TrEMBL record:
This is RDD family protein. InterPro entries: DUF2510, Pra-immunoreactive, RDD. Residues 27-54 have a biased composition (Polar residues). The lineage of its organism: Bacteria, Bacillati, Actinomycetota, Actinomycetes, Micrococcales. Residues 7-37 form the DUF2510 domain. Pfam families: DUF2510, RDD. Keywords: Cell membrane, Membrane, Transmembrane, Transmembrane helix. It comes from the Bacteria. It is a multi-pass membrane protein. Residues 27-91 are annotated as: Disordered. The chain crosses the membrane at residues 122-140, 177-196, 237-258. Residues 115-270 form the RDD domain.
Length: 284
């Protein structure tokens, strides 16, 4: 089945609006067909009709917009909760009209897919963090049980006022912490890479309706790109660097707030972007 191109289509639930199709499913991005400030405009007309108004091609004699590409019909497309529920009419707009400024204000990838907001990315990170936290705890209990035992011994010694014993136990805790950190990092790396290379969505991203892709091409990540996307987090395992990793982590998470491509630092390392909607499946 051929993949419908992403772009602006007639909104089937409102004849005066356009709605963005991300190549897989409807998004919640809409825009008026006609400018609220320009009485004579070609906003909301397909490219062929716009050319007709400029004398480049004959206009449709019926006066109706002439679609250049049909919308997906029947099975093969999904509808989010706030998207149109009925079948979409024809009418395809490869990109926002040049004078539809409000449509161009939506940040997109180079091929026109709307980028995910920082808020959605943060929400997905929280959800994935809860899953990873629970999973890491269970793994550490199974593979590094002495880590928790050493911590408890230090706490007990400090509570008893035995600073000498507490200080001597700190080296044991530090050694176990290195092993615990390695186990946790490997688990989180496997978790992320497995989802990025199959569905392009971790459970957190799936819940928020966003996905990750290469900046130059749609679809789930290849294994090399997925590994590159995890490289920045590996700094927490490097001696003398792990102590300041929190600053790197904080800067990485906040970077999309001011970046024009809404990329975090780990996105820049891997040349990836987080976008609205799902990613098309790789062809077998």
């Amino acid at each position: 089945m051929s993949q419908q191109p992403s772009g602006w289509y007639d909104d089937p639930s409102n004849a005066d609006m356009l709605r963005y199709w991300d190549g897989v499913t409807w998004t919640n991005h809409t825009a008026p067909k006609k400018s609220p400030t320009v009485s004579q405009s070609t906003i909301g007309l397909p490219q062929q009709s716009q050319q007709a108004q400029h004398g480049q091609v004959p206009p449709d004699r019926t006066g109706a917009p002439t679609p250049t590409t049909p919308m997906p019909q029947g099975s093969g497309w999904q509808t989010p909760s706030q998207a149109p529920q009925q079948q979409a009419p024809q009418g395809y707009y490869q990109q926002a009209p040049a004078n539809a400024q409000w449509m161009h204000n939506i940040r997109t990838t180079a091929d026109g897919i709307p980028l995910a907001s920082w808020g959605k990315r943060f929400g997905a990170w929280i959800l994935d963090g809860i899953i990873l936290g629970i999973g890491s705890y269970l793994l550490l209990r199974a593979f590094v049980p002495e880590y928790f035992t050493s911590i408890q011994r230090v706490i007990d010694a400090a509570a008893a006022g035995d600073q000498t014993t507490a200080s001597s136990l700190i080296n044991d805790v530090a050694g176990q912490a290195v092993r615990a950190g390695l186990v946790s990092w490997v688990f989180s790396a496997v978790y992320c890479i497995a989802f990025w290379t199959t569905t392009a969505q971790t459970p957190g991203k799936m819940a928020l309706g966003i996905s990750v892709r290469r900046a130059d091409a749609p679809g789930p990540l290849d294994i090399v790109t997925a590994i590159r996307r995890r490289l920045l987090s590996a700094l927490q395992l490097v001696p003398f660097v792990s102590g300041v990793y929190f600053l790197v982590f904080l800067l990485d998470g906040l970077w999309p707030l001011w970046d024009d491509k809404r990329q975090a630092l780990h996105d820049k390392v891997a040349s990836t972007q987080v976008v609205e909607g799902k990613q098309p499946r790789k062809q077998a």
